[in-house]
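Duplicate of #3305? Posting structure anyway:
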């Protein structure tokens, strides 16, 4: 119910802001199995675009456990997101168990591997290990998605930079993780990074200089 309400908010907001969203598929997602979706994080507009892009799919967004402690917002956040607590090995193990249970229920997980906004003119900032470590530990494929126009619709420098126009999400090739070992997180991370970087250059993302 929380996701339906959030999706309604996202679609209504994009409509009234004059933003027309389109999903493009280099390789379509197979909903018969869960994946870990990873996306590039460049704007506050990523949130409604994310909800619009994954409309109709069973997803949970991965978030920080600390956010759930915020009064009122924390309740909604905890209901809509899978939280990860990295404060200790035991808490991290518990979080991985929760993620595994979510994925076994054929619910995909959505993660921003950059962690925060990419404030550079490079296609992407450096990825954290988390998404890729989880993918290997849970033996779950990774499905990269790039948001091409969020930067132009709402620049991270100012919340007053909102402009109408197009929005595109491109679904890229799925990356299998079954052949990777726990010691090969960096290898998997760099492979996915390369796929997304090349796609952003190919589609001429506007922040790349």
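Output from current build:
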């Amino acid at each position: 119910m929380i996701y339906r309400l959030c999706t309604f908010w996202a679609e209504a907001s994009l409509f009234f802001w004059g933003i027309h969203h389109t999903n493009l598929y280099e390789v379509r997602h197979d909903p018969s199995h869960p994946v870990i979706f990873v996306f590039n994080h460049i704007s506050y507009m990523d949130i409604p675009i994310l909800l619009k892009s994954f409309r109709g799919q069973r997803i949970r967004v991965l978030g920080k456990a600390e956010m759930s402690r915020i009064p009122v917002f924390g309740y909604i956040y905890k209901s809509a997101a899978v939280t990860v607590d990295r404060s200790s090995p035991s808490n991290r193990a518990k979080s991985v168990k929760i993620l595994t249970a979510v994925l076994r229920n054929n619910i995909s997980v959505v993660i921003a591997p950059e962690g925060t906004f990419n404030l550079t003119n490079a296609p992407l900032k450096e990825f954290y290990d988390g998404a890729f470590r989880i993918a290997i530990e849970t033996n779950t494929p990774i499905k990269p998605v790039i948001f091409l126009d969020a930067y132009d619709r709402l620049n991270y420098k100012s919340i007053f930079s909102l402009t109408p126009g197009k929005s595109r999400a491109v679904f890229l090739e799925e990356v299998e993780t079954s052949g990777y070992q726990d010691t090969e997180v960096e290898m998997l991370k760099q492979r996915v990074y390369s796929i997304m970087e090349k796609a952003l250059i190919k589609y001429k993302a506007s922040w790349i200089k």
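Confirmed duplicate; merging threads. The two ends are 42 Å apart (CA to CA). Residues 2-202 form one domain.
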